[in-house]
Amino acid sequence: MTGGDVSRVSPERTVVRVSVGSPREQRRDTLAGEEPLEVRVNGRSLAVTMRTPGADFDLAAGFLVSEGVISRTEELITMRYCAEAGVDESNQFNVLDVRLAPEVAPPSPDVARAFFTTSSCGLCGKASIDAVRTRSHFDLRGGELSVTTATLVALPERLRAAQRVFDKTGGLHAAGLFSPTGELLVLREDVGRHNALDKVVGWALREGRLPLRDTILLVSGRASFELVQKAVMAGIPMLCAVSAPSSLAVELAEESGLTLVGFLRDPSMVIYAGADRIVDSLEG
After folding, report:
1. What's 277's DSSP letter?
2. Lowest CB count within 10 Å: 48, 89, 124, 175, which one?
3. What is the pLDDT of residues 66-90, one digit of tens each?
């Protein structure tokens, strides 16, 4: 058994399907896995989040980037599942300890306080636009990123085609990172959209890719303040969503120099901030 065991990512259950006028049908159904993950930093509990098992190391690393604790690969020394006394066998893959480099300051009391992060909400209300602007290690303004409208409208289908677990369950959010030409660099799925994005950012940190300049982030749901916050903290200049952004998400995008696109569905989109990075395909 591993942290990303298929039986935990997409467990099966017996269900009863009912259609009016037809006999009831009993069958096996695949669900989207959801379990708690406790993240510890240097042995001290930092957070508990509900997530879909799998890519837990990426999730923890991305969360620490989003919180401004780390921003460089070398600041993260080791990560391991906990199996010490007090962690029973069924939970040993639900407790993860992260060791930071000696020179890295521990999470501030604001971050390190005990809190529970739901898979749907993220860190709702915890951050402000000013806090994100002052804590981010990366400046989004400037840069060379330029993307055509034709490239952007093709991304949702590419994201959907790569969602393997969603095909089984129909119940997971996705976050995908693309190149300016539309090449999928990495995709992560999770029952929580914030977790899916943290997994993408954590992958980038562990691969030594931060800041994520010249990349496009696409999320499968709406663009909330927290998702814009996480994109800014990772140095991602463009965030696209297939649904609507919130008012605070648009404000933060404008303040941070992030290009924010909503309702991205072939053949159209709505640009809420940073339109200069998007080039109409008819103009080349």
Report:
1. G
2. 89
3. 989 999 999 999 999 986 545 555 5
